[in-house]
C-alpha cells in the first residue's frame, strides 16, 4: 500500500544515504568526457559529489577537479569551474525549494557546461513505498523523486531559462554559450564519411599527395572547400596551388568526383535534418551558429533562409501518414517487416534523411538509449523503439536485454527489461540489420545460409524466443558452435541420415 504524505508527520530524510560508491566514472560524467568537453586545461566541479568518486577519477586523468557535498565534504568551498556536475542530486532533495536552489547554485558555478542528471520513471515501481512530498521515501529512509523525462527537461529549462539538451535517459547538458550549444547539437546529426580512394594517381598528385592529404580530410569532414583561416596548412597549400579550388582539381585527377559529390550531399542533408529538428522548438539564430557551420550552410545550401525553408518542407513531409511506411519499405538498409524497419545503430546515418529526422523527433527530449544496438521504426504508428542486445557481435542469436519505446505523440516512454527472463526474444539473420561494410557481415551471412540449408529458419513464428529456438535445434539435432551449425553429439545415426536426406532435398529445391 502507498500511504498519503498529508497524513504523515515531517520525516527526517537521510539524504546522505543515497550516495553511491562507484568503481568507475558515473554515466553523466563519462558522457561529457566522450563528448569532448574536457581538454588539458578544463576545470571540473562536482556539486553534491557524495563519496567523490568522479572527482578522484578525473584527478587521476590529470584534470583539475574538486567537489562539495553537505555531508561527506562540507568543508570544501564551492568554486566556479568550466564543467559542473549536478549528478543525481535534485532527485534526492525532498524540499522543492531546496531542490530549485541547488540547481541554480550549480548553474551559477558553471562557466561552460552544466551536467544535470536525475532518476526518471522507466518502469512501474513496487507498491511497498511511502508517498512523501512529490516523491517517495525508500526503505533506507532516503527520498527519491522520479521524473518523467520530458518533465525533467521542462523543469531545468524553466528554472534556469535555458534550452537543455538530452543526451540519455535522465541526463542533460546545459550550455552557457549559445554557439557551443548549437555546435554540439549539430554534431549529433553528423556522421563519419570515408575519404574517397585514390584510383588513378597522376604524377602531379603523387608529387603533392602529402600536402593535399589535409585538404582531402577537411573536405571529407565538411563536404566543402575550406575558407581563409580554416586549414592549418593553408599558407603552404596556397603558395603551391594559389587556391583551394586549383588544389582540389589535382585531387579529382586521382579520385572519383561522384564520391566527393556524395559526401557533399550527405553533409547537406545532415544540415537540413538539424534545422528541421529545430522546428519543434525555436530555430537557432544565425549568429548563434559557429563560423564553421555558417560556412557549411553557405557552401551547401546557398544561404540560411534557403536551408531553413528546405528543412521546414522536410519536416512538413513527415505529416503525410504514409511517408514513414513508404521510406521504411523502400529502405535499402535494415530488416523490413510489414509493420516495421529494424536497423543497427551503426547504419543510422545511412538512412533516408526523413527517417533520420523521424528518429531525431524521438530523441529531442528523451535522448537515445545509450546502449542501443538496434532501432525499430514503427511504420504505421508514431513510435520509435531502441533495443539493446549486449552480445550482438559475439552471440550467433543474441537475446534482447532491454527495450525502450517512445510514443512520439505524447513522448511517453515504455521501458522493458528482459535480463532475468527465462525466455527472452532472440535475433536471427543478423546480417539483415547491418550493411555489407559491417566487419562481421560475412560471418553473419554464412551462418544464415547454413541455417536455411538445415531448415532451422522455416518456422518463423516459433523460433523468435530462446525456448522456441532451443526446441527447433533439438528437433533438428543441431547445435550452434560459434557462428556455425553442427550435429549434436548425441544424435541418433538413423535420425541423422533422415535429416541429411531432407537437407539435400531442400538444397535441390532451393532456387539460385
Write up this protein.
The chain has 16 helices and 17 strands. It has a six-stranded mixed β-sheet, with helices on both faces. It has a six-stranded antiparallel β-sheet with strand order 10-11-12-13-14-15, with helices on one face. The chain has four domains: 5-176, Vaccinia Virus protein VP39 (Rossmann fold), CATH 3.40.50.150; 203-255; 323-417, no CATH class; 442-509, no CATH class. By secondary structure, it is α+β, with helices and mostly antiparallel strands.
CATH superfamily grouping of the largest domain: Vaccinia Virus protein VP39
The percent range for helix content is 25-40%
Uncertain segments of ≥5 residues (pLDDT<50)? 1-9, 124-137
Strand content: 15-25%
Q: Write the CATH fold name of the largest domain.
A: Rossmann fold
What is the count of β-strands?
17
Spatial order of strands in the largest sheet: 2-1-3-4-9-8
Termini Cα gap:
64 Å
Radius of gyration: 27 Å
The biggest sheet amounts to: 6 strands, mixed
Rounded mean pLDDT is: 86
Number of helices: 16
> What is the CATH class name of the largest domain?
Alpha Beta
List keywords for this structure.
512 residues; alpha+beta; 4 domains; six-stranded mixed β-sheet; six-stranded antiparallel β-sheet; 38% helix; globular
Amino acid at each position: 500500500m502507498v500511504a498519503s504524505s498529508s497524513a504523515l508527520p515531517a520525516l527526517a530524510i537521510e539524504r546522505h544515504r543515497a550516495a553511491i560508491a562507484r568503481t568507475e566514472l558515473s554515466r553523466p560524467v563519462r558522457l561529457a568526457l566522450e563528448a569532448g568537453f574536457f581538454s588539458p586545461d578544463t576545470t571540473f566541479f562536482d556539486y553534491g559529489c557524495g563519496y567523490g568518486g568522479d572527482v578522484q577519477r578525473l584527478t587521476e586523468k590529470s584534470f583539475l577537479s574538486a567537489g562539495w557535498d553537505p555531508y561527506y565534504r562540507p568543508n570544501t568551498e564551492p568554486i566556479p569551474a568550466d564543467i559542473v556536475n549536478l549528478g543525481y542530486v535534485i532527485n534526492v532533495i525532498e524540499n522543492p525549494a531546496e531542490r530549485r536552489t541547488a540547481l541554480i547554485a550549480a548553474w551559477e558555478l558553471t562557466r561552460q557546461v552544466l551536467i544535470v542528471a536525475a532518476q526518471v520513471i522507466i518502469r512501474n515501481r513496487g507498491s511497498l513505498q511511502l508517498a512523501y512530498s512529490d516523491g517517495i521515501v525508500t526503505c533506507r529512509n532516503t527520498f527519491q523523486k522520479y521524473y518523467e523525462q520530458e518533465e525533467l527537461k521542462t523543469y531545468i529549462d524553466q528554472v534556469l531559462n535555458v534550452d537543455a539538451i538530452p543526451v540519455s535517459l535522465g541526463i542533460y547538458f546545459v550550455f552557457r554559450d549559445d554557439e557551443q550549444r548549437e555546435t554540439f547539437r549539430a554534431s549529433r546529426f553528423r556522421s563519419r564519411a570515408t575519404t574517397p580512394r585514390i584510383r588513378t594517381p597522376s604524377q602531379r598528385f603523387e608529387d603533392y599527395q602529402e600536402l593535399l592529404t589535409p585538404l582531402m580530410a577537411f573536405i571529407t569532414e565538411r563536404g566543402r572547400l575550406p575558407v581563409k583561416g580554416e586549414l592549418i596548412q593553408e599558407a603552404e597549400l596556397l603558395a603551391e596551388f594559389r587556391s583551394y579550388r586549383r588544389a582540389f582539381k589535382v585531387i579529382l585527377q586521382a579520385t572519383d568526383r561522384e564520391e566527393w559529390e556524395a559526401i557533399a550531399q550527405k553533409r547537406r542533408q545532415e544540415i537540413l535534418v538539424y534545422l528541421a529538428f529545430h522546428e519543434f522548438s525555436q530555430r537557432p539564430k544565425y549568429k548563434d551558429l559557429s563560423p564553421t557551420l555558417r560556412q557549411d550552410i553557405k557552401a551547401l545550401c546557398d544561404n540560411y533562409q534557403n536551408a531553413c525553408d528546405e528543412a521546414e518542407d522536410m519536416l512538413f513531409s513527415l505529416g503525410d501518414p504514409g511517408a514513414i511506411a513508404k521510406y521504411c519499405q523502400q529502405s535499402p538498409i535494415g530488416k523490413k517487416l510489414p509493420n516495421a524497419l529494424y536497423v543497427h545503430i551503426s547504419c543510422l546515418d545511412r538512412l533516408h534523411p526523413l527517417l533520420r529526422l523521424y528518429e531525431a523527433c524521438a530523441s529531442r527530449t528523451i535522448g537515445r538509449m545509450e546502449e542501443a544496438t538496434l532501432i525499430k521504426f514503427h511504420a504505421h504508428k508514431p513510435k520509435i523503439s531502441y533495443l539493446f542486445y549486449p552480445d550482438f557481435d559475439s552471440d550467433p542469436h543474441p537475446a534482447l536485454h532491454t527495450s525502450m519505446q517512445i510514443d512520439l505523440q505524447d513522448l511517453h516512454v515504455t521501458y522493458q527489461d528482459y535480463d532475468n527472463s527465462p525466455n527472452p526474444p532472440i535475433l536471427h539473420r543478423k546480417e539483415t540489420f547491418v550493411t555489407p561494410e559491417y566487419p562481421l557481415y560475412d560471418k553473419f551471412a554464412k551462418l544464415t545460409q547454413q541455417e536455411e540449408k538445415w531448415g532451422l529458419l522455416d518456422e518463423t513464428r516459433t523460433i523468435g524466443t530462446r525456448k522456441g529456438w532451443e526446441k527447433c535445434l533439438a528437433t533438428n539435432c543441431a547445435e550452434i558452435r560459434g557462428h556455425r551449425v553442427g550435429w549434436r553429439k548425441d544424435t541418433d545415426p538413423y535420425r541423422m541420415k533422415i535429416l541429411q536426406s531432407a537437407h539435400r532435398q531442400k538444397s535441390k529445391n532451393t532456387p539460385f
